[in-house]
Each structure stands twice: as structure tokens, then as C-alpha cells.
């Protein structure tokens, strides 16, 4: 392994609510320089897993490691990782101010999506849901961190915007490791160097022949 490469691993994760098991038998690995996909039907615990990896959801048991070293609360580690949740999270500030807060170059964001250049001084609550989602995704994706976690980044985006965002993800993996979870599995597989499928009860399977295995597990028709 290159001395500058970082490896994020998550395993020994056990999560249950009121005696109902949500996650068990989990193993997932993401590496800088690569995109890792995470697929699975609604309700299998994907978002819970991502929050546990980020460090904001406590579990009965969990192990998140960077290059083999246990990290208790990854989100508190400066420059380590950022997370795109499914819900809106950015405060009602201008795009220019938000980029400054996230150490993201506004010019870089606008280079990919010129239409955002018309809204640099507008507060984001005045923008459409799709543009807010795009801005939040780009803030996380362009952040100067080792890893980013993207939960449903293609939600509410048009096919053209989705295609450009896929290119951004591909470009950014040169600088970081990217973990992406989305129901648009063709898009996820197209940009992923490795992909996992989550199946009940909260178990991960590393896919070696993705389309065949997704069909075998009933994820696709």
C-alpha cells in the first residue's frame, strides 16, 4: 500500500432497536483513490451504517478504523471525513459563504455547474430543492478531507446534472476515498471501483459480478 494511501474499514457493527436487529455481520472498506458503492433495498440499514461510520449514531458494538487504528468519533477528526445525509443540513447562508465555511473553492463548483454562478450571493433557502441538494453534495464532495460519505447524492437531480455529478465523483477520487450509496445502481456501479450489497439482516456482501449477484439477491428484476 502506498504510504500516503488511507484505508477506512468498518466491521464488528451490531445495532438493534427494541430487540430488533438492524445491523450485524458488517464489513466495509473504502480507500483513498477509489469509489466504493453501497447498495441495498430500503430498510436494510444503509443510512444507519453510514451514520455509525461517521460517528454520530452509537451502536451496541462498532469498529471504525483508519489504516488499522480505531477511531472513536471520526467526524471530530480534522480533515478526515465529511458526510452527506439524506436530509437538508446546510444553514441558510449564501453559496459564497457556505463555500468559505467548507474550505471549498466557489470557482471549482461553478466550473462544473455554471448555473450555480447565478446564485452565489443568494441564501440557499430561496433556491429550489434540487439546487440545494446539488450545492450540499458539492460542498461535501469538494471538501479537503480524506474521505467523503454520500447518502443518496442523486436524489432530486435531473439526468444531466446526475451525469455531471458522476464526473465530479470520478475526478475527486484522485484526492480522497468516496463512499456512495444511492438507489440508482447503474450509476453507482459505473463510478465504483468496488461495491457492496446490504441484505437483511444488515449484512454486507462484496460484489464480484455485480449485475448477476444483484439479480440473484432480488435487488434487480
From TrEMBL:
Keyword Nucleotide-binding recorded: yes
Cite the InterPro entries for this sequence.
Answer: AAA+_ATPase, ABC_transporter-like_ATP-bd, BCAA_Transport_ATP-bd_LivF, P-loop_NTPase
Q: Which domain of life is it from?
A: Bacteria
**Residue intervals passing through the bilayer:** none
Which keywords describe this protein according to UniProt? Amino-acid transport, ATP-binding, Nucleotide-binding, Transport
Q: Which Pfam families did the record assign? A: ABC_tran
Q: Which GO terms describe its molecular function?
A: ATP binding
On whether ATP-binding is a keyword of this UniProt record, the answer is yes
Which residue ranges does the record assign to the ABC transporter domain? 8-220
- Gene3D superfamilies assigned to the protein according to its UniProt record, in alphabetical order: P-loop containing nucleotide triphosphate hydrolases (3.40.50.300)
Q: Which family does it belong to?
A: Belongs to the ABC transporter superfamily.
Q: What is this protein called?
A: ATP-binding cassette domain-containing protein
